[in-house]
């Protein structure tokens, strides 16, 4: 079975619409409806006053119709009363501007009041529906992605650093604080990377992104613990993009099924996202939790299905009359079911009834690292064109499939080919892993821009020299012992090939995959 | 008679210049001088300490020369002492940044201290000059246009919403608050659309712009009430542009003469502004209160005069030596009257001596709505190219004149042709008005993008189907019963023509007026 | 002898590296190392707790090797503990955002706590090293360049204005405050040009930039006074660029040697910077304190050396592993001395051993004024393309050398040719100086945009008419008594030539140097 469905927000409509919804869902072949995302202001209309009646009815109605429920905790958008009661739980941006209610995701994940209120509503939801037979999957929160720089975050950041580094000397060393007089004498002197006079410290910036990811992960784990009594598996939906303050490779270890939201324009990008989700999931299933309904629904779903998706879900079931996403496409458009979109989606639903998730076995691995993407976004670096994500996608297109897109820390044994384009940030463990892989007989491709700094953003000159059979001085090569396979039009080497142990390492002097084959 | 003149700010010059000014005004044919805009810091140099002596002299001098005065209340720019005394009356932007003195228009129209001080100075001015024989026109404030998000505004916004909606249920319904958990349990939870995490609620954004317009209108009315003892008519000058937080159609009901400030580059835009001002004025006069003096003054004035302007005024009489508009053109340039600009303006003044405002009768109406413009500026919508204002102007150029540019709520009876391009926002009353017009035998043109949402920014699928003789699904047409007059190069319909009652409705599938004829 | 060396920050490396550093410096011909810039957090690791041991060792080591030291006061970057202790000494931007530690230069030069702490550390440094034989030069601070808008600055600005103008009447007159009701009744009402509603007052904006320069100069002088017991000369390094809040012409009177930091892309810009530094220095020496090391070091140094540089120094000696400038080029790159950059720099060092600074005598002067640059950046002016700096550089390229680039207040007697392109701001003293020069037989070139306003940004119509032999009305010319040397393609004059006293004045109706010859 393949999950098929989408976000179902019946609270936006009169109760009378629900029966139509269920009838149309059955017509469309929907077997999973995501319910309750952003429903906090309906579930707890006033502080401490809960109303689950409407949700009981929705879940019962879906269950009677045989439609499974992906039940969401509503914590991604606290209600207006929360903002009014707890102004200090609102997020603060780099400039010190405290945001207010008016959109979604407006909270600080480190604010005590937010932690208390969000875990309370999740606990109530969990207690009530842990054993509800409709619940096939728990969906914690929605697209974790709020970065904050408030004083609660500052305090939590200091605790996180203290655990990470142990003492100030280690922090000063990791952050290279002797540059520009940034040496701290106590963790108490550390601040989030708020607005400052000029360029910030790249190690501080990267650690803050790691910290934000971990702080949100702690919130996710706290919610997951409240769901432990339910037999249903647990996930959260991953948003993709350079802005995302979540290290998905790490988070993927914490979910029962990897779920991605994907809104690309091209099939190649769908293929990349699918291979990435599968790479994060490893031996667990993955699904497409959100994408845009369209009159090309069958063709759009294919790249995901062909790469092992266990579910094809949309945002959202029925188009919203109002609100910020009123023009977002929906499975049931504003004009109703007598529309090309609904017909196409129903056709896809019918097709999926007899399909199962496919198993994909890849012999090529493409390394992709969100921490590297973050490191490359630091303002002290020149703007890069193309950027990291674009380079990775170009390589993905250039390589012959199937391809596993993997975190650099993933086991590489067994792959015929491993490619690490522009992997700027490289820890000692990844250095070892690549050498083990190549030394053991693997084929490894590295590019310009790979392994320039360690995990603390400190420059590591010569770090690849043994692998590539040449000495790198900036972008230039000297002392070449490897074979020059191709040259640039100006005569400089384009591709080196070096025997390393039992394997072969190719080094590309550009980030372009043009000379791969 | 046609008013001719401009802003006269003699306080910027030694008293000795005034005699020259009057002599030159007479030479130029000036019959109306706008005095006192931005003169607060001269009229009340210290809190509660008033000095009208210099203004007495200026008014007397002009009167003796037979030059009328358009006397302005100085409330658009409080003096520095006001800022120092009342920091909490300074405007606050979306990010919570409180602005300070340093330019003009720096006040919050809902701040109690500003209301008190501004009405006091206006009251003093009104008492002193209500019967001054020079005063031909009162000019309240200047280009109302300050948006603020402070706590005074938040409180006033809640009162405004409470009056508009009555109870929270109606607000929740109008604002579609069930999307993203924005349901309020009390008006007290509502905030202005301050900086928030992501996209705001379009209904909240639009209501805030309406509220800001109404808050400034209340200030205008309070000033107008203080002028009630004077026989002179009352106006305020309307700035044009997408940033303007004033619903001029509504404000036009509150002035004795519609006065616009217009700084375009092309004659077509002058024609549009003139037809728009006349459409706002309906049966009342309208005038050009500000435009830029130039050596082409006669040609520049013609589009306004030909469309019924009762006055041609400039900003400003004599160029300012210093200040932020020191390089703004003036009737008397920096180099004095022996200049092409002054000579041309004098020639125009001479021509106008014997002219009267023309009466314009149009059989074509173009509907134009600033609330639609605001609604289309909401960030949840894709950036539109061309934007609403540009589309309206293109239609104005494409149509044969004379044309009345009208608010959509204006009576349409009697027009041969009514065009409603891209009228995204459409209330039930306007829907009725268009059907009454077409059903009664009128010719109506609608375009893509028209009537997509109601007055609360809620999607209204199928709202035009009966008028256009087809079913609209997004941008596509099905079930066409109308005649297809033109097709796009790809074969899709470009123009439909549908009989509706006794009239004819054309629907353009683009916003482009190309296929009109 | 010519100084040769660069910034040496040994605190970023283990002490074991120092011996290598000295050995390599000797190999490279380094004779001056700038030590201690940004070392405050090492010199005073906790408030009041000083550690000079490591610096003693560094200075002794360098001295033993015969390498001179340019010893820097560390005041440009207070340590993290300072930020934590004195949050109110952090700079505040126009929007009222208080910046925090995280970069460099994060302090307010008017904050009492910063003044006290920075002068204390400088005093300790001065006491300890006043007579150290290694110290050849004192380097106060680093690239003064922090603008702040906090309340300490507001108070200091009012004192500065009170001294400059004496009373409010003079301030009101200079600032043209009758425009937009900005007339102050007391200096207490004046604010820094913080965020405001619309365009600011150009005279206020310019005076604020002058005040910021003066406030930093007061800090520089206070530090210099603490160094008075040392026989070594004193300098500070000048950053170049439109953002810089320092009037270098004035500051150049306060240093023993003018020192510039220059990071251009083209040799023409290096030539301009060198002629500018020499123009600021007049009869004193000047040096290149910072530029970027490269494999073209010899060619890059030549434009400076040919124009009289007394020193060629780089930022920095050894590349930083971490921090915001980890990718900045260095004399010893990340890959070590066996690199083209180090080899080329060593070759230059060898060449310089036998050279002395050349003496330059120029017969052409190009007037260049940072206050004019600031005035032309005011937002009430149209964006200019090309901007002031670009225009000046174009003229520099077009003129035959040698050229002195001079402040407009410099003595002009003796030059064959003086060019004042786009010198928008012109004081009465400069007006007199130009007339004295031309009247005394000099050749003077003026361009469009020259002498449009006085030192208070007030328009001065006709200010050039006597010099150019024509009447300027805006950009147009009438009453031409001068000879028209060239015409534009449309027939309007391009170049006028006018006899003025014993001299000749050419006026260009564009800012382009095309018609110069």
UniProtKB/TrEMBL annotation, chains A, B, C:
<dbReference type="InterPro" id="IPR029062">
    <property type="entry name" value="Class_I_gatase-like"/>
</dbReference>
<dbReference type="Pfam" id="PF02449">
    <property type="entry name" value="Glyco_hydro_42"/>
</dbReference>
<protein>
    <recommendedName>
        <fullName>beta-galactosidase</fullName>
        <ecNumber>3.2.1.23</ecNumber>
    </recommendedName>
</protein>
<comment type="similarity">
    <text>Belongs to the glycosyl hydrolase 42 family.</text>
</comment>
<dbReference type="InterPro" id="IPR003476">
    <property type="entry name" value="Glyco_hydro_42"/>
</dbReference>
<dbReference type="InterPro" id="IPR017853">
    <property type="entry name" value="GH"/>
</dbReference>
<keyword id="KW-0378">Hydrolase</keyword>
<feature type="domain" description="Beta-galactosidase trimerisation">
    <location>
        <begin position="362"/>
        <end position="471"/>
    </location>
</feature>
<feature type="domain" description="Glycoside hydrolase family 42 N-terminal">
    <location>
        <begin position="7"/>
        <end position="353"/>
    </location>
</feature>
<keyword id="KW-0326">Glycosidase</keyword>
<dbReference type="InterPro" id="IPR013529">
    <property type="entry name" value="Glyco_hydro_42_N"/>
</dbReference>
<dbReference type="InterPro" id="IPR013738">
    <property type="entry name" value="Beta_galactosidase_Trimer"/>
</dbReference>
<dbReference type="Pfam" id="PF08532">
    <property type="entry name" value="Glyco_hydro_42M"/>
</dbReference>
